[in-house]
Amino acid sequence: MGVAQRQSAAPFVPSGAGIDELREAASGCRGCSLYRDATQTVFGQGSPRARLMMIGEQPGDREDRQGAPFVGPAGRLLNRALEEAGLPRDSVYLTNAVKHFKFERVHGKQRIHKKPSRTEVVACWPWLAAELGVVRPEFAVCLGATAAQALLGTSFRVTAHRGELLDGPRYADDADPLVVVATVHPSSVLRAPDPEAREDAYRRLVADLGVAASAMAGW
């Protein structure tokens, strides 16, 4: 059996656990090698009965240090976008497809985000599946390609289908399929090359979030 096949969080996920028990168990996850360099596991946070789950790629440097999702610059931008779209942060559950920060060091101490591999995303899937099973959201917003492909398959392209209402997976036998909206990760807005481009990217992000808000209002 190859290394990629052996990597999985499944042995660390307790059966029948609630969110608090899952969070505690995730702190000891050794399902892939990312735990070795990360400061800590960054588990999801938010309303445990939220109708909407927002899923990003992985924690960043600030999240890794503080142990909470979306607390850095991208998280602050997301908070503002959520408010404008009518989805205040305390009404949603926020998490990531991968629970440990993957990075490379530059200039000695600076830690720069590095995209997780498909193997690492698959290895971490049992945690996201467990969160879905406990929170039981009706809707999900995928922030970026890694999150979208974790839910919708590797052939999915955010650029082709952003802002659309999509049929997602059925996370439990007694649950309806998720309604999914895919959009860009807020960090990509911050990386836009100039103020005009950043404002345009931000407005498109708010519009995509608004699709989810409108769908929820009419459901």
Automatic annotation (TrEMBL):
Protein keywords: 4Fe-4S, DNA damage, DNA repair, Hydrolase, Iron, Iron-sulfur, Metal-binding
Gene3D superfamilies hit by this protein: Uracil-DNA glycosylase-like domain
MF terms (GO), sorted A to Z: 4 iron, 4 sulfur cluster binding; deaminated base DNA N-glycosylase activity; metal ion binding
Domain Uracil-DNA glycosylase-like: from-to ranges: 43-210
Domain of life: Bacteria
Pfam families tied to this protein: UDG
A biological-process GO annotation: DNA repair
DNA repair found in the keyword field: yes
Family, per entry: Belongs to the uracil-DNA glycosylase (UDG) superfamily. Type 4 (UDGa) family.
Protein name, as recorded: Type-4 uracil-DNA glycosylase
Organism field: Gandjariella thermophila
Gene: dpo
